[in-house]
Amino acid sequence: MYMHVRPGPFLLILTLMLTNHANNLWAETADRGKHDYVAHEIPGLSTLDIARLTSEFKAHPPLQFGQPWNESKEQGFRGGEVKVGYSATHLFISATLEDDYIFNQAEKLNDKAWMLGDIFEILLINPENQFYWEIQITPDNQKLQIKWPMSGPKSINDEHPLESFFVYSEAIIATKTMTLKGQWQIFAAIPFINIGKPLTGSTNSPLLRASFCRYDYSSLDNPPILSSTSPYQEPRFHRLDEFTTIHFSSTRE
Known about the structure:
Blueprint: H1 9-31, E1 36-38, E2 40-41, H2 50-57, E3 63-64, E4 80-86, E5 90-98, E6 119-125, E7 131-137, E8 143-149, E9 174-180, E10 183-191, E11 208-216, E12 225-228, E13 244-247
Parallel strand pairs: 1-13, 2-4
Antiparallel strand pairs: 3-4, 4-5, 5-10, 6-7, 6-11, 7-8, 9-10, 11-12, 11-13
């Protein structure tokens, strides 16, 4: 038997609550994956000047590390932040990572650093190129440099093993690292000639897209805690559509 029941005040309130919740979920879903950042202009800088970068970045807002694929951060998560700037010739990156156990056993360029301890990872795309960079940096300033086709690690096969994508040039990126109590810092300078220079101040200029990630180990006997500044819905860092868009402006704040 079907009975028509007139909604009382409680049912009306409940309906409004559910409607608002659905609208909020829709808004969150609509915004998911949208992530933008304005790089800080640093005129005249063409070298990795730590003092100048520290001063320039002091008041600039950072990108924060998180685990957006989790409802809450996992036990042992340590935070961090990244700031991005640029000059006429270089892209500059500064990162500070909280860390209770700072180590990596990599000893030379293009050791497989992600398997050997803590790393800070830069993933960088110029949409005008048919490739993107993956650069891993260790606390001892060792680097792994990979130039991926747009298909990323899916390109690995018998004919093209992982090592075939390694780049051994020392001119790709200049880096310095510092280990402090409970944290380590990374400073990096990438010549635009290696990634393609955005045309600042133009609405039609190509934008860089980037993701900054980390592997935080407590020991090699335990899996690392993964985190990123990008809004990944899964902890897989080569999801290119979820990278952050880096905007360049010729007007200083």
